Amino acid sequence: MTRPMLANLRLFTFASPPRFYVLAGRLVPWLWVVAAVLAGAGLWVGFFQAPTDATQGDAYRIIFIHVPAAWMSMLLYMVMAFWAAIGWAFNARLASMVARAIAPTGAMFTFAALWSGALWGKPTWGTWWVWDARLTSELILLFLYLGYMALVNAIDDTRRADQAGALLAVIGSVNVPIIYFSVKWWNTLHQGATISATTAPKMVATMLTAMLLMTLACWAYGFAVVFTRTRAIIAERERDAKWLNGVSS
Amino acid sequence: MTAPVFSAVLGRDLRLAARRRVDALLPLAFFAVAVSLFPLGVGPEPNTLRQIAPGVLWVCALLAAMLSVTQLFAADQADGSLEQMMLASGAGSASALSVAIAKAVSHWLLTGLPLLVVAPLFGVMFDLSGRSIAALCASLALGTPILSLLGSLGAALTLGVRNGGVLLILLIVPLCIPALIFGSGAVSAVESGASARGHFSLLGALFIATALLAPLATAAALRIATE
Amino acid sequence: MTDSPSAVAATDLACRRGERVLFSGLNLAVHPGEIVWLRGANGQGKTSLLRLLAGLARPAAGRIEHGLGRERVYVGHANALKDDLTVAESLMFLSRLHGFDTRAEAHEAALRRFGLWSRRLAPVRTLSQGQRRRVALSRLCTAPATALWLLDEPFDALDAEGVAALNLLLAEHAARGGSVLLTSHVALSLSSPEPIVLSLGEAAAA
Predict the structure, then answer these.
(1) Interface predicted TM-score (ipTM) of this complex, two decimals
(2) How far apart are CA C100 and CA C139, in angstroms?
(3) Which residues does chain C have within 8 Å of residue B84's beta carbon, measured at their own beta carbons?
(4) What is the nearest CA distance from A1 to chain C, expressed in angstroms?
(5) How many helices (H) and strands (E) does chain C have?
(6) d(CA A137, CA A192)
(7) Is B12 in contact with C84 (CB distance < 8 Å)?
């Protein structure tokens, strides 16, 4: 019945809230700098360097926000579900706190993907919204994020809330592959994948560069925000612990 | 070892429902009222009604199922019966699973099955063809168990939580959306003369996947809630 | 007595409720034939300990070992009765649920012990608190003979007759090799076997 002594493994050295609090606190300013620099570079390349698209004109440039946001929305959900599951399986408090910290950011990216997609859809498809497979499942993803946040906030007992949230997050993770593969399975309005791991990309090099720069910028931003929020959750939950009083924020 | 638990819980639930027949029929009444609102709100034009019928009937069935599932575990938790059910057969994981399955089955028998019986009547009210009504019944026959299974999962997750009913709907409806799409899509396809085989295959696959996975998740949620 | 195998033994047990640690470093053992009276102030974790031993929750630390082939019966603070079922139906449901004796004779004997036979067809909602407690306790009669009984405030709401019936039941159970761990905020009037008093505050390290 005893839990494995994870604290002895070097891998989990930073799995203790105090150590994470300090480490994250040091990294966050640098992450913001990296995010700003990459975003600036990505937007500059995307809006000024990349050529005008043959069919869509300049409206396509929203892709540099839309695609990274969509990728982040799916990726963050899987990361959130992963850490929530780890927190549940190993009774690791920090993992559960990280999962809770990810949820609002993931929801924001999902909302950004839907919103930017609508802005893109109007000039190109002629409509703000269409109920095809990919859009519908991305909307469902937003509901899953909101549902997770609602559930963990509704249960007062933090341990039970973390566990129930982890179960919900894992169940909902079946939706992410559906979003990803929906354009392949159903011949619907949304275009297919432009970048895949196996074939050469079908885009011009500068467009690709801009998109990858923006994706990395979103990554850095995501880390910065999630780390900051995790520190806030640690401070809130461990406010009675002695170690917190000796640490400067 | 688990069969006694399953049959004991299911038998008890059905007996309790028989003693409170009015309460058991409330979801059905909700369904009837909700469905009737649409012709009143949208207008009585037969072609319009025929087009929206599959969606309207399916959505109202979904909402009726969700509203009646909120109380699935709450009463048992309040009077201590849920603890006893979790302790059956030695407090192993088998008891939680049996309870989860029994509760989902009882919910389907008390809400899903009556909906299945009553739906053709409303199909006629919406001027659906005979083949469409048959497709409606078939899609509900596959779909309502999915709703019961997912609903019981939601009820277990939100057990004892403030505003649990609304939260349950927020959590579970996104998971029910694929069943809704394929279920009502099947009826629409038949109504417009196309083949609904694809829809039914997907609905069937959803049913199998949900039947295999949802009880496990519900059992885990029950253990989390009673710990 | 202590070298016979125990019905249940807990080592270094810790219990957490929410973020609070209720107790830690708890060691206890209950042996066949023993009646252990768990005492402690409100909020110290008596109910939580019973739930841990019953298997409803997992301990935050430590180990619980149950004697081989020992059935557990947990009668919690709540009666686990449905208002709309009759007394007889309630007993049958709980007995069937746990795989206890479901024979009609056994149930009649159980209900007669607690003076409920005349009310066996009455819905639970028509019973008083004390009568409901008796129904909840009656399933102890249909449980396996040498089971471990975990009882949370079993004497609650019982009148003198009910207390006498329960005392007799406890004595018989201990005599045939069963074991009991119970909590009670009123003094026990049971004299043989003499209940072993276990104070939660002393048994735990915290």
Answers:
(1) 0.89
(2) 8
(3) 74, 80, 94, 97-98
(4) 6
(5) 6, 8
(6) 15
(7) no
- Whether the CB-CB separation of C181 and C50 falls below 8 Å is answered with yes
Of B86, B29, B18, the C-alpha closest to B60 is: B29
Residues of A with CB under 8 A from a CB of B: 136, 140, 143-144, 146-147, 150-151, 154-155, 160, 163-164, 167-168, 171-172, 175
Tally of CB atoms within 10 A around C150: 28
User: CB atoms < 10 A from the CB of A75, how many?
Assistant: 17
Q: What are B32-80's pLDDT values in tens digits?
A: 999 999 999 998 898 999 999 999 999 999 999 998 998 899 999 999 9
What is the per-residue DSSP string for A82-102? HHHHHHHHHT-HHHHHHHHHH
Nearest-10 Cα torsion for C26, C9, C58, C146: -140
Rounded Cα–Cα distance for residues A43 and A48 (Å)? 8
Cα–Cα distance measured from residue A74 to residue A177, given in angstroms and rounded to the nearest whole number: 9
Of A1, A2, A158, the CB nearest to C18: A158
Residue C98 belongs to what H/E stretch? helix C87-98
Tokens 């559960």 label which residue? A96
Note whether A10 and A1 are within 8 A (CB): no
Which among C18, C62, C63 has the least Cβ separation from residue A159? C18
Cβ–Cβ under 8 Å, residues B84 and C94:
yes
The answer to whether A2 contacts chain C (CB < 8 Å) is yes
**Residue B130 has which token pair?**
């005979």
The Cα of C23 is separated from the nearest Cα of chain A by a number of Å equal to 17
Of C189, C59, C61, C80, nearest to C133 by C-alpha is: C80
- Is B225 part of the contact surface with chain A (CB cutoff 8 Å)? yes
% helix, strand, coil for chain A, step of 5: 75, 0, 20
Out of A1, A156, A157, closest to residue C64 by CB: A1
Q: What is the mean pLDDT of chain C?
A: 88
Residue A17: partners with Cβ closer than 8 Å, 6 or more residues away: A93, A94, A97, A234, A237, A238
Task: State the Cα–Cα distance between residues A4 and A33, nearest whole angstrom.
Answer: 39
Amino acid at C154: P
B173 reaches A (C-beta below 8 A): yes
Per the structure block, which two tokens stand in for C186?
Answer: 């009123």
Q: Does the beta-carbon distance from A150 to B167 stay under 8 Å?
A: yes
pLDDT at A135 over 90: no
Q: What is the DSSP letter of A161?
A: H
pTM of the complete model beyond 0.95: no
Structure tokens at A158: 């933090």
Neighbours of chain A (3+ CB pairs under 8 A): B, C
